[in-house]
Design brief:
The complex is a heterodimer of chains A (about 550) and B (about 190). With about 550 residues, chain A is α/β, with parallel strands linked by helices. Chain A has helices at about 15-25, 60-70, 125-130, 130-135, 145-160, 185-195, 240-245, 295-305, 400-405, 450-470, 535-555; strands spanning about 5-10, 30-35, 95, 160, 175, 200, 250-255, 255-265, 270-275, 285-295, 335-340, 360, 380-390, 410-420, 430-435, 440-445, 475-480, 520. In chain A, strands 1, 2, 7, 8, 9, 10 and 18 form a seven-stranded mixed beta sheet that branches. Chain A has a six-stranded antiparallel beta sheet with strand order 6-12-13-14-11-17. Chain A has a three-stranded mixed beta sheet with strand order 3-16-15, with helices on one face. In chain A, β1 (about 5-10), α1 and β2 (about 30-35) form a beta-alpha-beta unit. Chain A is globular. The mean pLDDT of chain A is about 95. Chain B has helices spanning about 15-25, 45-50, 65-80, 90-95, 100-125, 130-145, 150-165, 170-175. In chain B, α5 (about 100-125) packs across α7 (about 150-165). Chain B is globular, with a radius of gyration of 24 Å. Chains A and B meet through α2, α6, α7, β7 and β13 of A and α1, α2, α4, α7 and α8 of B.
Chain lengths: ~550, ~190
């Protein structure tokens, strides 16, 4: 089997899968070098009730002892803890007083798309040109119109169910029919539109409602993060990765922990990868004409730092010094919930009634395109919401009376926000030279904390959520504003930022390294800002656009 | 709600789709690869989780609770959630405690002991030795106490028993579980729904 390819792609997730598919379908010989083992439908447990598991997934301590104390929460305990890395084998470090929860470090084909939340929202020019508007940070080196055709391509392939709302802050896309909202959600949607002019839409989900490319529509069993046997939830493993492998032009190299990009120092070109086989712990090399890193932001930048050479002493592609800086992750921990004791409903369990895979989304309404500016913070946030009847777990008493009370449902509505995190120089990652992982690869040292802007936004999240619930007639409203640990949103972006100026950015607008022309970073590392929308749809669209550029450059002979 | 047996989409039912996908899953997904697929890590600690048949206690034996604590829990659980004995709540709680933190184990033992303490103080004997009527009185008093002390112990035990019971097949069936995961649509919104 050959060890030399046209393009080496590191990662098999949202961007890695797309890169391999686009390139291989164009006839380019690709190696998909992935840290994890191959995924299989046999691993899926979407229809397994908890009592079929030995500990019924009720022992977080056990999962912690199995080395997934940090990863638990991105994976779901006993169901699929082994899809993620072992925190003990693959540590990272943080600075004192600045905890960071680096989760979603998947070690199975498909990466985070095995467990992601599937909320899929476009960015608008309010996001791409935010810096021009409020003076903070850097604009993206592209506009919405540049990315719109690629959002179309991605949405049509992935299959996004949702509704057009005509709201500037959340551009409409190519949707399959949206899933229905519940009665209380419809009530809430009407009231907040009437009172505040705000829009709550059914979440735009990467869960199909119509058959698509041999994938069946969602059958509403709900735990998509345990696997989806009908392939209704988008997972790159059975879509983009499968398409790439079907071409015969793409080889999967599994269990490959990439250590560094190998460089031809005379020509200042990437020539391959050094990786460590996860099973044998032996180093191996693989060569190619171009390298595309899609390992997720933190892993890709770790590779770049570990690729330092005499010519690139501060890490590969880092003549600007910007590599590793401007780490962003959405601020979470602000929201509210309320009850509707007068609304009847029927509480249900998984495996007993249909369940929708994601809930509705309240579109950003602060610092909008045409709206007033907030005094206390810039940018904005959106809420992931949900309203349904739940069992009355908190019913008092015991015995048969408690069992009866428990079944009397309480209709509840709740929402938690994801807020934009400003990119700050002092939020950065570097290599910790004193610590290596079990493969001998130096680990990251992560420095991140939320700033005043995020904390002011957090307080407003709690206030605005409560006022909307009140306007919608909820009772017993409880609001909260407790900042999550950075990393907890699992939306890390920014540490190899894109820009037009090579002195202040790492990548150009096509995610090509300014310093090394045959090196690309096509995951979220290039984001100049985080926006408040979930990043994965934009990661995929950017990747497809950048692949088109890469192929064009290959045709021109510049790579 | 509709289920697969009563509603068929054009051409193929959901169950048929699943069968097709499962039968095709192991072929063609990875057209070629360098190196053979590798299983998940094989640490001994993993085996106990991965193989539910291993490390099962002999029927009646416990992993963490002693026999008296287990008897006391059995009696308490049946009062708190009737049907707990049939749902093997005590054995399952014991299994969870066997892998739990020192803090949770300490708190659990303290809560069991607190109920015993009430019986010893008032009746001069263990909780399991007083009459069912007295056991019910003790639990009722605990459930109605002001927060702190005995009330906290009752709440702790109730939470454990609740989770154990309603995660069992017996408990989940009472909540409506029917082993049916295939639905063509969400419930129509002509009224309040979940």
């Amino acid at each position: 089997m050959t060890n030399t390819y046209d393009v080496l792609v590191v990662g098999s997730g949202a961007s890695g899968g797309w890169a391999c598919k686009r390139l291989a379908e164009a006839g380019i010989k690709v190696a998909m070098v992935d840290a994890g083992r191959p995924q299989s439908d046999e691993n899926f447990k979407d229809h397994v009730p908890p009592f079929k598991l030995k500990y019924r997934n009720l022992s977080p301590e056990l999962i912690r002892r199995l080395g997934r104390g940090i990863q638990n929460g991105s994976v779901d305990g006993e169901y699929n803890y082994d899809w993620a890395c072992n925190d003990l084998d693959e540590p990272y470090t943080t600075s004192p007083g600045k905890p960071f929860s680096w989760r979603g470090r998947m070690r199975i084909t498909g990466g985070r798309t095995n467990v992601w939340g599937r909320h899929s929202y476009r960015f608008s020019d309010l996001d791409f040109k935010a810096a021009s508007r409020d003076g903070y940070g850097a604009d993206w080196p592209l506009e919405y119109k540049d990315l719109a055709p690629y959002y179309d391509i991605v949405e049509e392939f992935v299959g996004i169910s949702g509704s057009a709302e005509g709201v500037y802050e959340l551009p409409d896309g190519k949707f399959q029919p949206a899933m229905a909202m519940t009665h209380v959600e419809n009530l809430f949607r009407e009231r907040i539109k009437q009172k505040f002019g705000r829009t709550m839409t059914q979440g735009r989900a990467a869960n199909i409602t119509r058959e698509l490319n041999g994938r069946a529509p969602c059958h509403y069993c709900a735990p998509c993060w345990h696997g989806c046997m009908t392939h209704s939830a988008f997972n790159s493993f059975h879509t983009t990765v499968a398409d790439a492998l079907k071409t015969g032009k793409c080889d999967l190299v599994p269990n490959a922990m990439v250590y560094k990009v190998l460089m031809d120092s005379e020509r200042n070109r990437a020539k391959g990868l050094l990786y460590i086989d996860r099973v044998t712990h032996q180093p191996k090399e693989i060569h190619g004409r171009a390298v595309v890193l899609c390992a997720q932001s933190l892993e890709s930048v770790r590779i770049l730092f570990n690729s330092a050479t005499r010519q690139h002493p501060n890490g590969l592609a880092n003549s600007s010094g910007a590599l590793g800086h401007y780490l962003m992750d959405h601020i979470t921990g602000g929201g509210a919930s309320g009850e509707y004791p007068d609304l009847p409903g029927k509480a249900v369990v998984l495996g007993g009634a249909p369940h929708r895979p994601i809930g509705p989304y309240v579109i950003r309404f602060r610092n909008t395109h045409n709206g007033p500016r907030e005094k206390n913070y810039i940018r904005g946030y959106g809420f992931q919401a949900g309203g349904h009847a739940d069992f009355n777990w908190a019913a008092p008493g015991f015995g048969d009376e408690y069992k009866r009370s428990l079944l009397g449902p309480m209709v509840k509505m709740g929402m938690g926000a994801f807020g934009e995190c400003l990119g700050r120089w002092e939020n950065y990652v570097e290599i910790n030279p004193g610590v290596v992982d079990t493969f001998g690869i130096p680990v990251l040292n992560i420095h991140m904390s939320y700033g005043e802007n995020e904390l002011a936004m957090l307080k407003d999240m709690a206030v605005s959520a409560a006022e909307m619930l009140e306007a919608a007639g909820a009772k017993n409203i409880k609001s909260y504003a407790n900042p999550g640990t950075p990393g907890g949103a699992i939306h890390e972006v920014g540490i190899a930022r894109m820009g037009t100026n090579p002195q202040t950015s790492v990548l150009n607008g096509f995610q090509q390294a300014h310093d090394v022309k045959n090196l690309f970073v096509m995951d979220g590392a290039g984001f100049p800002s985080s926006a408040c929308q979930n990043p994965t749809l934009t990661i995929m669209a950017l990747c497809v656009r950048s692949c088109d550029y890469l192929m064009d450059e290959m045709r021109k002979g510049t790579l | 709600m509709s289920n697969d047996s009563s509603t068929r989409r054009e051409g193929i039912s959901r169950r048929e789709m699943v069968q097709k996908l499962v039968s095709g899953a192991s072929s063609g997904i990875i057209a070629s690869s360098i190196g053979a697929p590798v299983q998940a890590e094989t640490r001994p600690a993993v085996a106990a989780v991965e193989n539910p048949q291993s490390a099962q206690p002999v029927e009646g034996a416990t992993l963490f609770l002693d026999s008296h604590q287990a008897e006391t829990l059995r009696a308490l659980a049946e009062i708190i959630i009737p049907g707990s004995a049939k749902a093997d709540v005590t054995q399952f709680i014991d299994l969870l405690l066997s892998v739990d933190t020192l803090e949770n184990r300490t708190n659990f033992v303290a809560s069991i002991s607190a109920m015993d303490g009430e019986a010893l103080r008032d009746d001069g004997t263990a909780f399991t030795k007083v009459t069912p009527a007295r056991q019910l009185e003790i639990v009722t008093r605990a459930s109605e106490s002001a927060s702190g002390g005995l009330r906290d112990h009752f709440d702790n035990l109730k939470e454990w028993v609740r989770k154990a019971y309603y995660s069992s097949e017996t408990g989940m069936r009472e909540l409506g579980w029917s082993d049916n995961y295939f639905y063509d649509s969400l419930p129509p919104v002509d009224g309040p729904t979940s």
